[in-house]
Amino acid sequence: MGGLREVAAPFVMPGPSGVAVRAGLKGLSGQDETVLRLVGELLGSLASGDLKARCAAGLGHDGEQWARRKRALTGQSSARWAGSITKATHDQWALARRGQLAHLQSLRAGIDTITHRLAQPIGAKGSKRWPGGYRSRREWFAKSRRLHVLQDRLEQVRADFEAGRVHVVRGGRKLLRTRHHLKAAQMTEAQWRLRWQAERWFLRADGESGKRYGNETIRVTPEGEVSIRLPASLADLANRPHGRYVLACRIRFHHRSEQWADRVAAHRAVAYRVHYDPDRGRWYVTASWQTPPVRTVPLSAARAGGLVGVDTNADHLAAWRLDAHGNPLGAPRRFDYRLDGTAQHRDAQVRHALIRLLNWTARHGLSLAIEDLDFAAEKTRERHGRRKRFRKLISGMPTARLRARLMSMAAELGATVVAVDPAYTSRWGAQHWQKPLTSKNRKPTRHDAATVAIGRRALGHPIRRRTAPPPLHRSDAVGHRTVQARPSIPGREGPRPRVPGPRTRSVPPGRGAKAGDQCAHNRSGHTAEHEPWTQDSLPLSP
């Protein structure tokens, strides 16, 4: 394709596999908060010790060691608490392992980029795929030193990866480093200590199908009563038989309450997590359960009737409705959001923009076409050099969170989402669609043109517009045709098929020239007649 990378085919994105809802524990007594803190501290210390044992085992860990760890925890808590702790430990170790692999690949990519640029002459221009040389001798020297730093770091990470060593911090490494920069974080030591302890507490229980209300450890009744099975060492704090403690408050899930109530009434598995928010000073309960896989519609059904192309940007979602033939209909739409402030504010902004987009799409009964964006390998400074604003731009785009939110919200509304390859959509959209769609009353932006390119790719059409009508003559004086047939298309050099009916006003049906015979035309390599051609003598008289 002339140096362009291969464009992947569009596909229908699968729906979410789980659901999580949250409710606040309002009206807790002092005794309730004391019990929750004691249970969280005890189980958190057990989880820390279990994580240490799992990291020490490394790649040699097997099922027997897992069972041994669980038996050791059962005597200090209970069998179900031990199962939840060991499962959480295994998930945390696996997550650290995947992060280590991603870091290893990032270091290799950075080393390859610096090595390539160091081999280029200073000031050499780059290409579309590879950058050129460095701008000055000073920058070249600084990058040569950084190359040695990355190579040493790569050796350390590779050695840890091959040995199965991971570096994990319960509570988060970012919060741990904040302890040494309390002034910059605008926190006191007491505030940091409370947040650190809250992050390291463990109050999480896995669901069990067939058990009462779907969970034996943390149980929530349909009326909202919350009870906890206390560990063996804290059984003297129980206020109910069988070592259970019932909280004085009642909870209510406002979101998906009917689904949760149906699962609890049928004794289906529901997992619960109790956590404390130090900023608000409140306790919360999060209920989660798995959902059956959503049946995705075929791609042909998603394309029927057209769809809505969506372009994801750092501050808004651009959308345009397209018909089944790839033609834009109506006016483009823009759904703004802001990514400043706290994480909760950013998440609320994204959800608000998505629900407006989905409601607008549902009114037309169409599917969504969105780019399958992933900037995991595009954020390194070795790749973009001094383009700090661009690196900050792509780092701030919540592609993963936006995709997860979109899929879960689209599944609730019954909308279908088609993912397309993001290659060249902005460039080709602006090249082929921005100017033709501009009028006196409508001035589409580059992002609006990209939505048309995204939608046409999802529909299976080329991004280019349809071919221009033929000129008055066959020469190239008026320019080449917009779309040319590829060499692989059969019959591209042959004649057009004979269409029944009159071709011109003067030729009746069935009496046209030999359109299918190349020899009937005066063309290069073909004779108009099969007999030898001779020149007649010139007339001697006028």
Kindly describe this structure.
- With 542 residues, the chain is of the alpha+beta class.
- Helices cover 39% and strands 14% of the residues.
- It is built from 14 helices and 13 strands.
- It has a 6-stranded mixed beta sheet, sandwiched between helices.
- Strand 7 (271-277) and strand 8 (282-290) form a beta hairpin.
- Helix 1 packs antiparallel against helix 2 (63-74), helix 1 packs across helix 3 and helix 9 packs across helix 12 (399-413).
- The chain is globular and about 95 Å long.
Largest sheet: 6 strands, mixed
Silhouette: globular
**SSE order:** EEHHHHHHEEEEHEEHEEEHEHHHEHH
N- to C-terminal distance: 60 Å
Tally of individual helices: 14
Gist?
By secondary structure, this protein is of the alpha+beta class. 39% of the residues lie in helices and 14% in strands.
Q: Which helices and strands, and how do they pair?
A:
Blueprint: E1 11-12, E2 18-25, H1 30-57, H2 63-74, H3 79-119, H4 137-163, H5 173-178, H6 189-200, E3 204-205, E4 218-220, E5 225-229, E6 244-250, H7 257-265, E7 271-277, E8 282-290, H8 299-303, E9 307-312, E10 316-322, E11 328-336, H9 343-364, E12 367-371, H10 381-384, H11 388-396, H12 399-413, E13 417-420, H13 425-434, H14 446-459
Parallel strand pairs: 9-12, 12-13
Antiparallel strand pairs: 1-13, 2-8, 3-7, 4-5, 5-6, 7-8, 9-10, 10-11
